[in-house]
Amino acid sequence: MGNFATVYKVDDPLQDPNRTLDRFLSKKILSRLYQDAIQRNSEYSEQTDDPHANLLLGYYCHHGYGINKKDLKKCFQYYQRAAKQQHPTAQYLLYQLYVTNTSSQKVYIKTVPPKQLARLKIPMYVSSASNDICSSSAHNELKHKIATTTLWKKEVTKLMHVKKTLVETDRDRIIQDRPILYNEYGYLLWILNEERNVEQFQLAANYFKKAGDMGNPSGYYNVANIIHHVGNLIGKQADEARQYLFRAAENGHARSQFLLGYEAFYSKSSNDDLDNNYNVAFNYLSMSSRFPFADTLCLLGQLHYHGLGGIRQNFKLAKEHFEKAITSVDYENHDGKILGQFLLAFMYEKGIGMEKDYVVAAHYYAAAAKMNYSLAKCRLAKMLEKGKLRNSDILLAVQYYKSVTESSDHDAASYSYYRLGKLYSCGKFTDLQDENKGNQCFRAVQANHFFSSKINKRTTTWSDYHIGRMHQCALGVINNELSACDLYKCVIKKARGTYSVIGRHYMKKAIAKQSRQHETFKTKLENRLHTHDLELIEAALTINTEDGIKKQLRLNINQFCHVMNVVLKNKGTQDEYEELFQKVDATNEGYIDWDKLCSHILMQCYEKDDKIKVTQIPQWKENKHIWTPHRDTIVKIAMLRNPYRYVTISREGQLCMWELNNKIYRSFKSDFSCVYVIQGLDYIPLCLDFWLVLKFKHADTELNSRFNDDDLILAWGDVSGMVNAIVFSSASISLFDRPSQPRNQQQDPCLQLTIKEIKKGVFKNVRLVHHHGHDDWVRQVKYAEHLDCFISCATTEKNSLVLGWIEKSSSTMRTTAFHISQGVNSFDYSPDLNLIATAGVNYQVCLWNPYVISKPVGLLVGHMASVIHVIFNCSKGQLLSLSKDKVLRIWDTQLQICIQRLTGIFPKGPEVQSTLLYDELRHRLYSAFNNQFSFMEVKMELKDRIMSHNKPVINATYCAKYNQVISVCQDGDINIWRLDNGQRVKQFTGTHDAEVTALTFDEYSMKILTASIDGVIKVWDFNGQCSNLLVPSSGAAIDVSQILIIPRKTIVIGWERYITAFRSNQMFSYYVEPSDWKGGQEHSDDILVCAYSPPNSLATASYDGEIIIWNATNETYIRHLRQRCKKNTIRRRANTIKMLQQRKNRQSKEKPKRTLSVSGDLGNDEKDGKDDKNAKNGKDGNAKSKTAYEEFLARVTENDEDDISEFAISKLSFLDKRVGSESADLVSCGRYAWVRFWSSSAGELRGEFISHPHAKIVNMGIDPSNHYLATGDMDGLVKIWNITNYCMSRQGYTTEPPPLNCSFQPHVDTISSIELFHHHRRVYVLTSSADCGVALWDVEGSYIGMFGQ
After folding, report:
1. Whether the model pTM is above 0.70
2. In whole angstroms, what is the distance from residue 735 CA to residue 748 CA?
3. Which of 31, 44, 772, 992 is 20 to 30 A off residue 866, Cα-Cα?
């Protein structure tokens, strides 16, 4: 058997099913790839006669790739051209086209005698092998032939004597090919040393060194190989071997460059060294790509895939590299071609950087599987198992899994056993269900994992993940959540230590599982109890006496735990129930009752409120002093980002670098070698700023800057009030062009120049700009890349703060000045908030909009001395300010109030110079007063649940125009959130006097509309200004349930039987009165919801379940949909119950002889009457299609006293992509979790199903492409359904639900709104809830975050 676990046989061994893989291969895909490769390499061959391009063209002709048939003549010509240019692979392949007899199975173009063939091959093999000894095909075949064939040994020996003669006779003569001659002679000495003579090995090594010294890098590579492989004879010195390998790589040896890049890519280093390793890998692999073998291309593709090696993540380039790898050739003993196919298949399957295409993914998986890559076969089998391919065959998937279990790949076998175990145990496929086989498979997974961990001393991320899932879900093992959590941690740790595509995939899955575990275990039992749970507990702990008085039961610990187990079932564990009892029974009386339990839960709620209030104010740890070697004033604290370190520098030139644990990393004086000296400055500089242009994306928006990726800016302010800036446009090459020196004169390493030379433009790619915006010393200067300007300040009332913009044709900047009383000591700019904060000499902190100079947008008053430092904390929306009296204040920038004042924490003393740095990522404040260095850290926040609002959230919606999310709660507080980081941008409070019930945008996403229970609709801009007030015509309070914006009118729906419309031409006045709806009243009950689909379809639904389709343009109704409304359904209720009773009493279970059409099942009143007659006569005509709904009617009739409640519709939505066809294009949901699909054009019900059993009402949302339906219930559970092909036929009716994609629980209370939207090729699910939260997930069930976290 191929692996340790095959002792657990799950079935009889199968024949290898590789023959079935051909059905997934596509000739079109292969043809396209190779045609592109032929065109690309043909251009290289014609333009530069590139040897590797010639090799690949010959390879394609040799095997017939991308062409109609093989062309051996062209193949030989291409190989010959590449071999003349010393391409080692071409030298080996060239005479593979010659054979000694025609009976050979090989493809050939010529037959020659054995002796002649040996004489042709041996020089080429020697030339090829001498470029890559020990691991090339030429070397391996040559070594085999010498050992087994006398003819070859004789001819090789003869060739060595010829080379020896050339070496000795031409010793004093310089010839062009001497480096190649020495290298080949050294190789012949080495391969013919069968007696392993040390002296001969040493002689071979000497000739290799000579070849390397004369410019042949293969010589150095061969020396490294000799030292490595024959170390026991001449001294195995790994460091010396690496040095020769480095020398070979530096001199252009492609194989050496690849090996060093390969080693750096797969090296196991600490996280701090990983980035450096990938930089090294990228550099060496880029150099090696001049011979683009498949292995090199595959590694480069992975670097682009992850964005490693100092390059940006680029899936397009990664895909191109993987495609090139597939059409290239591999190095010996490497599998880049296979791995390229597998990774490309994975990208297509998961839709990474491209649209999902399961057919293409299956092609590449099958191609890799045919090359014996077991994991590719597993992935293909899983696609079949999940039904991602047409005609997916589960039995074929089982065959593939079983064939992998017979392989020698333990990890792939373990994965296959896991999938087989799930198939046998889950019950999804009844024909496969076998509990014993499933347990055998899971035991095999454990055995393989044990073998890998104990024998091989290594396990893969996916193996650890699957063992964790087994422990979590009790698959073949006892349920153990702690072991599962430990294994998930192991997966995350391993994946973070490397950049494996599959490893990272399983890391994301492990993080998702771990986060759900943490949410379950870290939340107290009291916080997991819902209102319904408390009602059940109250019912269990109280009894009703004969007098109608509730009597409370007194329970001991055992009785209490038993009751909780029965009532709550899986809500908690025995330990949690016992712990809760001990908390409630604080006085140790030995019993508790309902009052005690209520009091405890109430106290928990009070504590929770206090914690939420406390988290708004940062809780600081003690200010800690850090010893430093500085002996003079520390003038600057800065932070490095790659790697993360802190830097301090003092006046005497001492520079210190600090680790994140505040331990000193390095300290040295500023004795750096000076490269440039700028002399002749007009005035003394006081402040400096240095900025390097980095092209990046911020908040999903490309940064717009006038500078290029290679620009650098050096800015300074001087004592005259002038701000100067030098812009270097070729910083990566050289800042200043050095003048040419006479041939015999040594160049000075330090270039001295004057500021006048820069002004005159003596140096290319260097430009000096300036402005004289201040009348006094410039205290601070900074380049703000988001504003594309220079900000500077001075302690003068006039021109206190100046913004300078560079003009294209002028050396003088355009300026904008802010005038602040008594001037400014310093400032800070926040690109997230787009605010400039100034530290005023007049004790005030001002907040400025950069484009408004007339007055500040905020004034923060409270300091009793001059403010000297201000720093933004953007993640919290806060500002830190420090005054001369050493008082630190924390301000809320939104409320513009001081939330904290800290005194007495900084060192006391006389007048000092100070500087501050705040690390937002680690919540640390570093401060320096003179030469004293210290830091404070914020305590970890205490919180049980993240709250986006203080009150239940009514609605949350996504604004694509600004990439923001807007939410509103019952109190009328409107929050605007950033989608990229979940932080709140703005908040409007007190928007309504009554409870808010609805929220939406206008058609241009420029205004926000809100409504309340008093019938008032307000229109807001994004600054919180109310521009219009829409009032109901009658003046009476109307509980507005929905606002709908359609072209030229605003539709308002409330608990009334008519539609209220506000015309767009009336929106010019503040108070807007409604207009009459031309269609009048058509509903017989209150309208609850509505939906619109362009160009003119409007649907409204009422409390009694009736849906009406309108023409929104002329405001006339088109048709009624009454198949599931009150007056049709209640009338059938009694007959339904009788019919069901008759059906139960029948002894013969005959199938119905006829099935009615959809219209017969769900028709108008006349057809319902016919159904009633059939029911009275005992006929079962509608049994097949009505059973589910009729049983539901019977159940709610017996259990529900409200005759109308089950008909209320809570949400209505059009499927815009289907409108105009006769398929189902309208979806409704409502009471008892029914979701129904209607055809608005045919007026028929096409399908219905219960989405959430036991739920009384659901909400829903549909994505814009109409592929996914999301439903949410009162417990906070969300389900994602795939409706791509659901109810697409023009007729028929179904009660089967669509495929369930996934389910998750973002909230713990009622889902109030669900919205699905597309962003960056991903479908997100935005939910709001009565638990005061607004959450973001995706349709695959991945948790993104909670707004306000």
Report:
1. no
2. 16
3. 772
